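Q&A log
Question type: sequence-to-structure
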Amino acid sequence: MKKETGKEWLHGRRKRIAVVVVLAAAGAIAWLLLSLFSGAKEVGFEQVPEDELPEAITSDIIPEYKTLERALACCIDDDIYVIVTRGEKPTSGFKVAVDHMALEEQDGKSTLIVYAGFKDPDKKTAFSQIITYPTAVVRTDLKQLPEDIELRIQY
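Response status: OK
Response body:
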């Protein structure tokens, strides 16, 4: 077996990096094409800071759904909000964020697909031993509530 020189090793590493970049680009293109041809339309949104959340969300909706892992939508003052709850967690450090959303129309029925990123705490880091309920709330540019919502989780 021939031993690799530094130059050969570097060349091999560049090839591996190029393959990873090409695969990532192909995945992004495939997702975009699937979105375009499936009739999905991107939904714009903005993160709502906790201190700016409507009272109906903080006092009624979040307490009722915080123990569940789900996405739901509500209409308050003509704004459509999407809330993603992650359920009960044993420590701090668990996170949830809305990455993007798409509205699909199939057979006259609208389905909002919510892509949420879930992040777990680093196992090597110490976190407070306290029950938490990771939640994300966004205000969308939708004009009406969708008929159905589907949560797609990405880690």
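Response note: Helices lie at 6-37, 55-65.
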